[in-house]
Amino acid sequence: MSDFWVGHFNSIVIFLFVLSAIVLSNLYYLRPLSFSTVVQKKTERSRNSDYYNIDDDKLDYVNSNAEPFVSVLVPARNEELNIRNCVESILGQDYPRMELIVLDDCSEDGTGAILNEIAMSYRGAFDFKVIEGEKLPPVWLGKPRACHRLSERAAGELLLFVDADTVLEKDAVKTAVQTMVYGDYDLLSLMPCQKTVTFAEKLVVPVVLWSIMFFLPLFLSYRLKKMLPAAAIGQFMLFRANVYRRLGGHKAVMDEVVDDLALARLYKGSNRRWGIFNGVGLLSCRMYRNTAEVIEGFSKNLFGVFNYRIITHIFIWLWVTNVFFLPVLVLAGAGLEYLISGSSEVFPLAVLRPASFAVIISLFIWLTVNLNFRIPLYMTLFYPLTVLSTSLIAFLSLFRHLRGTKVWKGRLIEGKSIKWL
Predict the structure, then answer these.
(1) Residue 346 — very low, low, confident or very high, per pLDDT cuts 50/70/90?
(2) 200 C-beta neighbours (distance < 10 Å), count
(3) Fewest Cβ atoms closer than 10 Å to its Cβ: which of 113, 215, 277, 331?
(4) Which helix (H) or strand (E) holds 132?
């Protein structure tokens, strides 16, 4: 039995070394983006011509006065705590050619009143409109429908979808637009700084950032068209309008709970150029405000991340828990045994050695990601609890999808059909 556990922990260490390589490589692609770093991409183009395939006329286009017209589109349902900060941050953008359209998606709180108040008092340079939501047609989920309706009203060459709980710094739109043109992207997404206050938020909310850094090797995903997935963050997604409409836009993902990932898959599957960037200095978001919202929000989404595949979902979350939680559990058990009996016979050194390596490597990669995304560094010590908590929510997500009891913001969610594999 000892040989089995030695081999098992050695396999965990090997897996963690692979994750470390992915994290370190992703540090290049997901280094914090700012307006000043966009200009540097012209230099990078000469060194990375295979990746930055940019025409000279597009570089001139960026530096000219002919900025593309951007439609900023915000779906909002029951967002009275967030909508004012979101809208005012967009209206304060340092970008000359844009419009803002907000859809009040049948809100049951004060969202509509706040939007009307801002619209009545706004006297700025941008066109700002508020439109009303409607009863959901069959098959459609709420957010894809709201985004689709917003896109129908948009006049921009670029469509920027921003979640109502997101706040933009004044140069966010300018930086994203220039990055899109420099890189010749059809879809560009920014990862925000995740604002967390309660312990439950700090424990679980940044898991989206960790997952991309750990499990999506961007240096391969950008180059391999079919083998690896794509990723995007719905809080900030910028599209070329003509490509978005040609591929069907949100109508193509009308029944997807995780519509941002579905759109990213659609773009990659259609051989369209996509990019995801670290936008912690450009935008921030507070997704949830208490433990109940964290559980409800993630249980709505986690099963959909793996395209509603039961066995895949179960295997991945059991393996992740095994990799990050089991070594800590073994070391804690060995420590407790030593305190009680003065020796460690249940956990021999041959097992404790690879388990210790696993914990050291885990601390390194979690600390690296936390530094890169401005996550409180002390939360690195809680990574086993993060993994265990998120895994439990993932299984709750599976259970609720199987029972059909998914409710979000007062609406029953009827997602796609469930598969075994």
Answers:
(1) confident
(2) 18
(3) 113
(4) strand 127-132
Residue type, 59: L
Residues 386-401 as b or e (16 or more Cβ within 10 Å = b): bbbbbbebbbbbbebb
- For position 61, what pLDDT does the model report? 44
Count CB neighbours of 248 within 10 A: 14
Residues 115 and 75 sit within 8 Å (Cβ to Cβ): no
| Angle at CA of residue 153, ends 149 and 154, nearest 5° | 115
3-state secondary structure of 75: strand
Answer whether residue 19 shows pLDDT above 50.
yes
Residue 260's alpha-carbon distances to 143, 238, 267, in angstroms, are: 10, 11, 11
d(CA 268, CA 252): 14
| pLDDT tens digits along 142-173 | 999 999 999 999 999 999 999 999 999 999 99
The pLDDT, as a whole number, for residue 50 is 43
Report whether 27 contacts 372 (CB < 8 A).
yes
CB atoms within 10 A of CB 109: 14
C-alpha dist (Å) from residue 22 to 169, 176, 210: 29, 25, 12
